[in-house]
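DM between two lab members

TW: hey, do you still have the Sulfate permease entry open?
JB: yeah, one sec
JB: this one, 420 aa:
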Amino acid sequence: MKPKILTTLQNYDRRLFMADLVAGITVAMVALPLSLAIAIASGADPAKGLVTAIVAGFLISLLGGSRVQIGGPTGAFIVVVFKVISDHGYDGLVIATFMAGLILLVAGFLRAGRLIQLVPEPVINGFTIGIAIIIAASQLKDLFGLSIAQVPAEFFGKLEALWRARDSVNVPAMMIGVLTIFLIVALKRAAPRLPGLIIAVAVTSAIVAIPGLPVDTIQSRFGDLPRSLPLPAIPSLDAGRMLELLPSAFVIAFLAGVESLLSAMVADRMISGRHRSNAELIAQGAANLGSSLFGGLPATGAIARTATNIRAGGKTPVAGLVHAMTILIVMLIAAPLAGYMAMPALAGLLILTAWSMSEPHRWPEYLRERPSDRFLLVLTLVLTVVADLTVAIGVGVMIGLAIRLRRRAVPPSDWKPPQR
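TW: and the structure you got?
JB:
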């Protein structure tokens, strides 16, 4: 459970620091617009995304079990966070995040890191695609600049409301959103080492700001972003409220644990390394505790940002610390500039994020899986979209474990008639 940073610093030198410095700054430029967009999509103040990226991102790199893991708010949490805020208010989310941090700490100290292998892969794939669909649907209002007073949380109700508002399409907003998507894709292909996300969002936001197009920005909708971190405060831990929020806390802890360990395994393959799963869980617990103390969002290891860190040359957890400190510096110095980011640009960014989350390159592979795996994936996907993430995960894991036992030819129980 020893943090990786203690191992890597033993032979640390100037060459490694320069590589980590460049990678950390590069990842920060990717994480900055994503953190703002994820917070907004979650129904929270955009500044909460920056707070989470700074506090949780720093703690995940400081205490984690991976050399190159980058942590912060991720798209996987949008659905859960939005529901918790809708049902229990933002203070309820802070309490649930605090409790999730405690659950992850306990899991790490109990060495539960290897239990991820018990979660069937079709369940993970199913709820990931389901979350991606919900995220994409939630961004259509801002992408097209639709005039809707209140967008329903329920999926089909949301689609119906969007369709009814189709005559209110804001053409400039739609063009900004589409142009942002095009620029991100083009820059990724033409110059993959550049921070294409921040460049694309900056260019399209400038197109909005300079001529004063009638398009919503972060500043016009939410006001000025703060130029400092809030003071830490322990959330109000009322016993009744904690019991009410316990299911949400378990879902947050489950998602944080699963996504961080998946991200660490992907990173291992990219760098031919080996992460420490229990240290990673402890880091996720500390990060979520820390984020909640500063009023932030749930956090976990981010696969896309971790891969960006590796491609940019990150070698040790110092790159993650640089990433967090860079976002803090931007918050302290350039927060007003971030307020000019156009809402359709952030919507386009999140739609592309949702597309990447769904891993379309793997869809043909899913179609070749066993019928039981395809059924499990589709069931989890549908339950995620139309019911609830808690239900989807619970049902998917139970059915998946039953299928796994059957494949291993476990003999049926020897039922005996009751003695009556």
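TW: got it. The chain has one domain: 4-357. Residues 406 and 413 are 12 Å apart (CA to CA).
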